[in-house]
């Protein structure tokens, strides 16, 4: 069963979409939320990331997803005039949930939460990255469907609860997305929305999700601001017996 999402002021969009699996509705929901933004913020000025901060997270990473990297680079090149910070090709990721800062989570707890996740019946799945939308602090792909991502978030959150780690936001507040570039200053949103709108007809990219990574995550500023990580444990997902296809929304 997929947990229900709820309205959450700290999430973007605040309200969950009307359907968690329809590519058309997810794409439209993300776009409507982005077009309602009046001013973009500096992503790097978010609270909770003091200098030198490191934390353990669950993430999806894409080291071998050449098509995704190419599509992201295509979008970044088209938006270069905005002066945002690109997500590096090897830095593309989907953040699932925080486990806790390295100061608060012991090595034994990291081991335990990974062991617990590995014992759960988590099944591999396919998602599709749809160009293009954004949030108050980033330009990003819309992901579809959401249901397998939400179930994965809930399972990993339960593993964290059982391991007694600090954890992150509740599953009810989870809004899956895949960032392409980050806003590095406050700015009017309209020019960004206008530029992003030109890229929305690009073909979506399918992604096979066969594992989830427990990483130690930090920020760097050399050569440019970015997130970097070290994979602590890669937890494989159970193979699917049937492979449903989510090939993307229909273009009108």
Description:
With 252 residues, the protein is an alpha+beta fold. Helix content is 25%, strand content 28%. It has five helices and eleven strands. The strands form three sheets. The chain has a five-stranded antiparallel beta sheet with strand order 3-7-6-5-9. It has a four-stranded antiparallel beta sheet with strand order 4-2-10-11. A two-stranded antiparallel sheet has the order 1-8. Strand 10 and strand 11 form a beta hairpin. Helix 3 crosses helix 4. The protein is globular, with a radius of gyration of 17 Å. The two termini are 33 Å apart.
**C-alpha end-to-end distance:** 33 Å
**Global Rg:** 17 Å
Number of helices: 5
Structural class: alpha+beta
Largest sheet: 5 strands, antiparallel
Low-confidence stretches: 242-252
Helix amount, in percent?
25-40%
Task: Please sum up the structure shown.
The chain is α+β, with helices and mostly antiparallel strands. The chain is 25% helix and 28% strand.
């Amino acid at each position: 069963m997929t947990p229900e999402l709820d309205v959450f002021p700290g999430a973007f969009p605040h309200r969950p979409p009307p359907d968690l699996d329809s590519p058309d509705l997810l794409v439209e929901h993300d776009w409507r939320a982005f077009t309602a933004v009046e001013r973009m913020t500096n992503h790097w000025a978010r609270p909770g990331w003091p200098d030198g901060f490191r934390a353990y997270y669950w993430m999806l990473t894409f080291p071998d997803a050449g098509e995704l990297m190419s599509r992201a680079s295509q979008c970044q090149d088209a938006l270069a005039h905005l002066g945002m910070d690109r997500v590096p090709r090897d830095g593309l990721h989907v953040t699932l949930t925080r486990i806790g800062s390295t100061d608060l989570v012991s090595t034994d707890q990291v081991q335990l939460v990974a062991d617990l996740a590995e014992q759960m019946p988590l099944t591999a799945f396919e998602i599709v990255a749809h160009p293009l939308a954004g949030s108050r602090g980033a330009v990003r792909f819309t992901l579809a469907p959401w249901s397998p991502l939400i179930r994965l978030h809930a399972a990993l959150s339960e593993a964290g609860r059982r391991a007694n780690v600090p954890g992150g936001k509740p599953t009810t507040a989870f809004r899956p997305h895949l960032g392409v570039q980050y806003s590095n200053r406050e700015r009017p949103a309209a020019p960004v929305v206008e530029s992003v709108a030109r890229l929305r007809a690009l073909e979506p990219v399918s992604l096979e999700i066969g594992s989830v990574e427990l990483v130690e995550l930090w920020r760097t500023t050399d050569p440019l601001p970015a997130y970097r990580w070290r994979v602590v444990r890669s937890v494989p997902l159970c193979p699917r017996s049937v492979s449903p296809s989510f090939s993307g929304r229909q273009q009108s």
